[in-house]
Amino acid sequence: MSTVVQATPTRSIAIPPMPKAEPCTIVIFGASGDLTKRKLIPALYDLACIGCISGQQFDVLGTGRTEMTTDEFRKAMRDAASTSKDARKFSDWNWEEFEKRLHYFPGDINNDGFYHALKDQLSEIEKNGGSSNHLFYVSTQASLAPPIVQGLGKCGLSKNEKGWTRIVLEKPFGRDLESAKALNREVLQVFDEKDVYRIDHYLGKETVQNILVFRFGNSLFEPIWNRNYINSVEITAAETLGVEQRAAFYEETGALRDMVANHLLQLVTLTAMEPPVAFDADSVREQKVQVLRAIHHMTPEQVCERTVRGQYGPGKINGKDVPGYREEPGVKPDSRTETYVAVEFRIDNWRWAGVPFYVRSGKRLAKSETEIKIHFKRTPQALFAKTSDDDIEANVITLRVQPNEGITMSFAAKQPGAQMKAVPVKMDFSYQTAFGGQAPVAYETLLLDAMRGDPTLFTRGDEAENQWRIITPIEDAWLQLPVPKFPNYAAGSDGPEEANTLIAEECKKWSPIG
Ligand SMILES: NC(=O)C1=CN([C@@H]2O[C@H](COP(=O)(O)OP(=O)(O)OC[C@H]3O[C@@H](n4cnc5c(N)ncnc54)[C@H](OP(=O)(O)O)[C@@H]3O)[C@@H](O)[C@H]2O)C=CC1
Ligand SMILES: O=C1O[C@H](COP(=O)(O)O)[C@@H](O)[C@H](O)[C@H]1O
């Protein structure tokens, strides 16, 4: 049984308006790809609708190998924005104004001549009244970031005497520790660190930022936020989406690099970090890096014990048949790429010694949901008659990142009646109920920050390298181990059965998805 009590703000609070972007032209490398249509263009369109981007001196120049005219690009982006689940209310009138600022120019990133042609395109936009500030957005698979950075450097586009130039680099930043170090070196040969924005869009999510407010804006939780009271932490990022049209990207990436090496490690660090001395970019990043440094690097034996990989087979999502990963367009029929991963991290520091952080992420799971569950220790004794040890559940705080953003606390309460029987109840805070309105989605926040020159919510170079120090030993050990028998979970399920063996000792099994 479970009763829900609502938590609302103690006074009414409206969501304040967002600031205005600086004028600029955004060049998107990878504009024919999934991220551009699903997240970037809907976010930019929304920013235009709410007046953060003014029509004048704002342009987007998209590029990719796919041959398309600007009109075809505009049409494809319109289709995407009008059906985007992230976008605010779509209106044809607003779109007609917005699409005038979209341009497309096909080309191959590996071709030196492409960058000179790109420079000409930018000059043309400027001649027509566009801004001389340039924001380069690298939205391709990681292996293409170095040629882009070099190409921009060689043709002089990384320096700009007439305005500012910034570069946004999508995650994953490199594919292992060595390539991340090399990419950091290459980027810094061409750009100043202050102009480099390594993006991890989880940091732009309101509920992810709220982890810090929840922990450090309340005196209630911090005293118990440690190994003395917490038994384990369970972090889930589950998606119903499959690989979509992204096989080229996903085959070289896999779930560990795609989600765990960045988004989920961000959730781990924000949950585990010490209080920063101030809420500024460097103080927060400093504490996050300390957590990354304390996460235990696994030996190959520990990789066997503490990780599980999976790949989805055919199944049903929302009642519809979907193919297995190996049957998806562009995927090799014997692909070894993992679409699911579960890992047990250990943080070797004073606060967290002995507390496992169980982390899992997968595609084509039963439901799309991202959440952090803090499992507290059980009471030492079952005091109440009619209530067995097993019936008294340990307290759990659930931080719901998406959907239905909010926080739930479970605790025991007396069941009404003559008997002294304890039952679990829940206290629930929901963003939507409490604040109403529509909070900005992550890419709106982060694109706006990049256009305004605010790096607070972006990843520092050493942070990215420290993430790979944890992930690379896992990737290396997997390469040496026999490939698991893939596929090992059905689309629409909770993931491979083996994942439960990882968590069995502390939690019995993973919380059900959905
Ligand atoms: N999709 C998502 O939901 C999210 C993605 N990301 C990140 O965004 C980035 C892009 O991902 P996504 O859009 O999904 O990947 P896609 O595979 O969908 O897109 C890759 C893009 O790169 C372009 N490309 C590949 N090779 C070349 C080349 N030689 N020259 C020019 N362009 C090339 C492709 O263009 P073409 O096919 O025309 O050659 C395409 O536009 C990744 O770093 C990913 O981690 C981050 C958050 C969410
Ligand atoms: O970075 C990525 O994130 C998305 C999931 O983002 P979300 O905001 O919808 O949780 C994931 O689908 C994609 O594979 C990955 O590249």
From TrEMBL:
Residue span(s) of domain Glucose-6-phosphate dehydrogenase NAD-binding: 27-210
Task performed by this protein: Catalyzes the oxidation of glucose 6-phosphate to 6-phosphogluconolactone.
Domain Glucose-6-phosphate dehydrogenase C-terminal residue range list: 212-510
One GO term (biological process): pentose-phosphate shunt, oxidative branch
Family: Belongs to the glucose-6-phosphate dehydrogenase family.
Keywords: Carbohydrate metabolism, Glucose metabolism, NADP, Oxidoreductase
GO cellular component: cytosol
Taxonomic superkingdom: Bacteria
Sequence intervals crossing the membrane: none
Protein name per the record: Glucose-6-phosphate 1-dehydrogenase
List of residues binding NADP(+): G30, A31, S32, G33, D34, L35, T36, K37, R65, D108, I109, K171
EC number: 1.1.1.49
Catalytic activity: D-glucose 6-phosphate + NADP(+) = 6-phospho-D-glucono-1,5-lactone + NADPH + H(+)
Residue numbers annotated as active site: H263
Keyword Oxidoreductase (UniProt): yes
Annotated residues for binding of substrate: H201, K205, E239, D258, K363
GO MF annotation list: glucose-6-phosphate dehydrogenase activity; NADP binding
Pfam families assigned: G6PD_C, G6PD_N
InterPro entries cross-referenced by the UniProt entry: G6P_DH (IPR001282), G6P_DH_AS (IPR019796), G6P_DH_C (IPR022675), G6P_DH_NAD-bd (IPR022674), NAD(P)-bd_dom_sf (IPR036291)
Pathway: Carbohydrate degradation; pentose phosphate pathway; D-ribulose 5-phosphate from D-glucose 6-phosphate (oxidative stage): step 1/3
